[in-house]
Amino acid sequence: MQFARPTIRRPPNTIIFGRMDRDALARAARRRLAREALAFERDREAMLLSELEDALAEIEGPRLDAELYAQMTPDDTALVRAALGDEPPVEPEPEPGIEPDPEPEGGVYTEEEVARLETELGVSRLRQSAIERYLELLADGRGG
Q1: Cβ-contact 38, 128 below 8 angstroms
Q2: pTM, 2 dp
Q3: Contacts of 52 (CB under 8 A, 6+ apart)
Q4: Most exposed: 5, 68, 69, 128, by fewest CB within 10 Å?
Q5: Would 80 be classed as within a structural domain?
Q6: pLDDT tens by residue, 10-50
């Protein structure tokens, strides 16, 4: 009695690989992870920079506006203020016997927040530089 040889069925369009180059696969995975980390840091830098710009605009904006508006005609100043949404709010008349709440000093942002954002931007840029160097070494084949 002769036994039938089992038939191995493979899914269509499959490729059978020989011995894999483990180093190349590891490099590819590390390259992918490093590129993802770099993209994250670039996005983080852009977000921090935008937040820093907002903070500085809030802190320095009124002084800067006063300097610039002084060089413009009143009509142009009014047009720019309206376009930027900087029209001063119309203050309602206070009701008799009720004191209005005092305005808070400064805005939401403080100099400490500006310093923190500048520090975070520096850290993000250092990380990007290190990750870019890592990617260069991976590409040169000196990482292993």
Answers
A1: yes
A2: 0.60
A3: 114, 117, 118, 121
A4: 5
A5: yes
A6: 666 666 555 678 888 999 999 999 999 999 999 999 999 99
